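Dear colleagues,

As part of the handover before I leave the project, I'm documenting each prediction I ran so the next person doesn't have to rerun anything. This entry is a single chain, and its sequence is reproduced below.
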Amino acid sequence: MSPEEIELYKDIIKIGIPAVVGLSAGLIPYMIERRKISAQRYMENEKGRRELILSFSEALSKNIGSSTSYIAYLLSSDFNCSKDMAEKISESSVKMQESEIDRTRAKALSGIIGNNLVTDALLEYDKCISKVISFIIDPKCSDKNERNSLIEKMKLSEKEFLHALGKLL
């Protein structure tokens, strides 16, 4: 090796090592900060998603609770035709109508959440509830087998819906 080559290698080492160290000193904090920002963004997205799911479940529980109690009172009216029962049915009907806002809100939030399985299950369950209520209210419909069949479909739909909700988290 010639003296010029040795001098060249010495210069490369003198210049190269500090340059690599300097580059590393700048690159490492950049990578750490980038990961930190990414983790914060993920945490904020998860927090927003959880708040959305809580809002969805709140609206949903209000609507399902009022619908279920209305159906229960309608079914109980077969066995108890008292004035007290008629008042309970009327109150329950009013609560169910007031919960229509929550029903619409739950449907909208299920679309925002973006889980098609939940949205489809919610729409199917809602359709079953409407069919059961329509059948029970209609004075022409007195076939108990058909009524029981609709109620069983509603229960199955509710089970599928609750199973779909379990996949949200």
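The CA atoms of residues 86 and 138 lie 16 Å apart. The chain has a mean pLDDT of 83.

All the best with the project,
I.
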